[in-house]
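Explain my protein.
***
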Amino acid sequence: MQALFILEVAVDDAERIDGLEVRFAHQEQVVADLNEVITAQWKRIELLERNLKRLHEELQNMDQGRNAPEPPPPHY
């Protein structure tokens, strides 16, 4: 009777370990997938920030050009 109990416990432990290993493998894949998504998002954010900075500089340059006095027409 005691040998049967030990065998059942060993089988239960093996099944639990197998289940944990499967869950761990899936979690590793999810973490890797999420890392790829985050890396791609950061690259996109950096690109958008560079574009925004460039557009801001262009807007400032356009605004500075408007404040400069206009040259007189050529017929003067």
User: Anything to note?
Assistant: The longest helix spans residues 2-67. Residues 39 and 51 are 19 Å apart (CA to CA). The mean pLDDT is 86. The chain is about 85% helix and 0% strand.
